[in-house]
TrEMBL record:
One of its GO terms (molecular function) is glutathione transferase activity. Its EC number is 2.5.1.18. Residues 1-85 form the GST N-terminal domain. It comes from Folsomia candida (Springtail). It is an enzyme of class 2 (transferase). This is glutathione transferase. Belongs to the GST superfamily. Sigma family.
Length: 210
């Protein structure tokens, strides 16, 4: 089966799908739309935009079908590759932590896209202070209660991929090392990025700003 993924030249909201594809050994065409100098938001070429159900990317085409929301496509393939827990309760917990990881990432968009260096540093400091209790301490506590390396259950889940991606992306984009001082968070990240398929993907993936 042929897969064609349309997204920006970025890790962003859809890097977890690429990580899932790496785990599943899925070959696909990775169509990357140039970001430009954001802000303002990047422009999606008309010939791609008109094919997208909601006029936005990501969009994944395969087998005469298309999916046009990041979490929908990620959940679809997470189910295929057994990354959704061992039962419905674990799947629900995983969904909760994925949604929370996405919220966590989006909180950081304003500081990381700020062009003025002084203002950027101030926004990074403010955002870090706001997210320590709500996200970092909470996630660290959840991981610790589950054995110290994963968010849910005994096996790797797409929630683990999401959280590891967010923390890694914030470090790559803004030099913000949020896992420091949170042993369980660091252990989760180390576990995810030591997974052979993920490690191989990260080593070869295209360099991108975001």
């Amino acid at each position: 089966m042929s897969y064609k993924l349309y997204y920006f030249d970025a890790r962003g909201l859809n890097e977890p799908l690429r990580m899932i594809f790496a785990l599943g050994g899925v070959e696909y065409e990775d169509v990357r739309i140039p970001l430009g100098d954001i802000p303002p938001p990047p422009t999606i070429p008309a010939e791609i935009k008109e094919k997208c159900t909601w006029g936005q990317v990501p969009m994944l085409e395969f087998d005469g079908r298309k999916i046009c929301q990041s979490l929908a496509m990620q959940r679809y393939f997470a189910k295929k590759f057994n990354l959704v827990g061992s039962d419905d309760w674990e799947a629900a917990q995983i969904d909760e932590y994925v949604d929370s990881s996405k919220d966590f990432l989006q909180v950081w968009v304003p500081p990381l896209t700020e062009k003025d260096p002084a203002k950027r540093e101030e926004l990074i400091k403010e955002t870090k202070a706001k997210t320590v209790d709500k996200y970092l301490k909470t996630f660290d506590k959840i991981i610790s209660a589950n054995g110290g390396k994963r968010l849910v259950g005994k096996n790797l889940s797409w929630a683990d991929l999401w959280l590891a991606h967010v923390l890694n992306n914030l470090e790559l984009v803004g030099g913000v090392k949020l896992a420091e001082g949170f042993p369980a968070l660091k252990a989760l990240c180390d576990t995810v990025f030591a997974t052979p398929e993920i490690k191989a993907w990260v080593e070869k993936r295209p360099k991108s700003k975001f």
